[in-house]
Amino acid sequence: MLNQKRILVPISLGPEGLRLLEARPEFHVTRYDPAIKPAELHPLLADTAAIALSWTRFGAAEIAAAPHLEVAARIGVGFDSVDVPGPHRAPHSADGGRHRQLPARSPSTPSS
After folding, report:
1. Does residue 109 sit in helix, strand or coil?
2. By the 8 A CB rule, do 101 and 79 touch?
3. Is 52 contained in some domain?
4. Domain limits at 29?
């Protein structure tokens, strides 16, 4: 059996995006309701490698519940539901230890 990585995606993810992810044999896609409560989300995060967020709150508690998390991506614009400084307070590196800090550029700072 292939060693699949779990990816959590909101039920609001468009069908094209869902098809792209489900077509990849290395991914196990799990859909979740964006209104999910932390008590329901945290157990799902225990073996999750990536999460696509819509308006689900995601902060330090969620990062701590996700020891295998490699990517947390926001669908749409803005970071209003994401605790951007959260990874700096996490007890583990969200990228497997390859990097110790996030870029200094804030989400609102244009890249050059």
Report:
1. coil
2. no
3. yes
4. 5-89
Whole-number Å distance between alpha carbons of 87 and 22:
28
The token duo for 86 is: 């959260």
Amino acid occupying residue 109: T
- Give how far the C-alpha of residue 81 lies from the chain's centroid of Cα atoms, to the nearest Å: 12
Give the model's pLDDT for residue 50.
92
Instruction: Read off the pLDDT of residues 28-44 as tens digits, 9 standing for 90 and up.
Output: 999 999 999 999 999 99
Tell me the C-alpha distance between 37 and 50, whole Å: 18
Bigger pLDDT: 67 or 81?
67
Whether 108 maps to a domain, the answer reads: no
- The amino acid sitting at 112 is S
Q: 82: domain CATH number?
A: 3.40.50.720
pLDDT in tens, 70-102: 888 877 655 555 555 555 555 444 444 443 333
Structural domain includes residue 106: no
Is 69 contained in some domain?
A: yes
Task: Please tell me the total count of domains within the chain.
Answer: 1
Contact call for residues 86 and 79 (beta carbons, < 8 A)? no
